[in-house]
Amino acid sequence: MTTTSTFSDTVSRMWATRPPRIPAEQGGNAKIAGVCEGIGVRYQIDPTIVRVLFVVSLFTFGGGLAAYLLAWMCMPRYGMHVAPIQAISRRKEELSPPERKERTAGWWLLIFFVLTFGSFGTEGAFFSSGLMAMALLLGAWWLLHQRAPHPPAGLLAESPSPAMSTPVDLSGFHPADGTDVPPGRETPPSWDPLGAAPFAWDLPEPGPAPQPTRRKPRLWPWVALGLFGALSAATILSGVFGAFLYQKDVGQDLSYTPATEAELQGRYQGEIGSLEVDLRQLPPLDASHTVRIDGGIGPVNVYLPTAVPVQLTCEEGLGELDCDPGTYNDRASGGTLTLQVEGGIGPVKVSVPRDLPAQD
């Protein structure tokens, strides 16, 4: 009970002290959105190390982009209280003008995240590379929090206590437009250049200080995200188009009816079209066999044998699954047939003869 409470408290603390994003227009040395820069400042590590972690997860697990988008959604800008993911969950009227801009960005980020999160693995099962990458990066976040549980003073818009004991120079960063300097940050004291020179008190007041030229917003990060999103959408549409072709009777229907042990294959793979594997004519086996049936794009129909002991396992794909795993006909003589049925894109039905009930 104590362990669960401690873990929950730690996760809540991690979220409450999560780093803000520090993009280039706010003084950060950011390359895209300031995610790595903010993480580096919060946990006092080199942002380059964070960038390397994202790149490594991108090329090893393929989900580094989805993990970066999720971090972008969950991290507010420096000086702001609301992150993009929080902005889209609130009514527009409840948000300030700067937060409304984050709301628009949040919707785009959410769309790109959904498109880049999952992919189909080589074995036909749904495989989320984004989930593996995020698990790796969440573990790294946990370790960073254990190393530096307290944030630097003046970094967070709602600065919790206590703060990091060692002061951190944040003078190069400025809050987002329309927001205040985060609490706890020390503002440099004003200096009167004439305070030590009374003879110059009659000099005219200096004019207004020149305002720094605002950087133009960079569009290339959004263009890059758009390209990634377009590629992901094209992958999804290709699958939908394949299903459409099947509905138009374009593809190949496969049917197998092994009548001898020699005709029994180790694997039956569906393609674009229906797949039927009829094992009812299979005689008793001299040896045990393992047969795998993988669905493609289309329905799968499997008929169990009546004269062979069967050990059936079922794995769902993207479609309805009508398969009752278990042991069948275990009183029959001969070798056992281990049958592994995995769905693809389409319904799967495993038919059991009436006189062949499942047996535990």
UniProtKB/TrEMBL annotation:
Q: How does it sit in the membrane?
A: Single-pass membrane protein
Q: Does the keyword Protein biosynthesis apply?
A: no
Q: Which Pfam families match?
A: PspC
Q: Which domain of life is it from?
A: Bacteria
InterPro entries in UniProt: Phageshock_PspC_N, PspC
- Does the entry feature the keyword Transmembrane, yes or no? yes
As for subcellular location, the record says: Cell membrane
* Primary residence: membrane
The segment(s) forming the Phage shock protein PspC N-terminal domain are 29-77
Give the UniProt keywords, A-Z: Cell membrane, Membrane, Transmembrane, Transmembrane helix
- Parts of the chain that traverse the membrane: 49-71, 104-120, 219-246
What is the protein's given name? PspC domain-containing protein
* Source organism of this protein record: Corynebacterium nasicanis
Upper classification of the source organism reads: Bacteria, Bacillati, Actinomycetota, Actinomycetes, Mycobacteriales
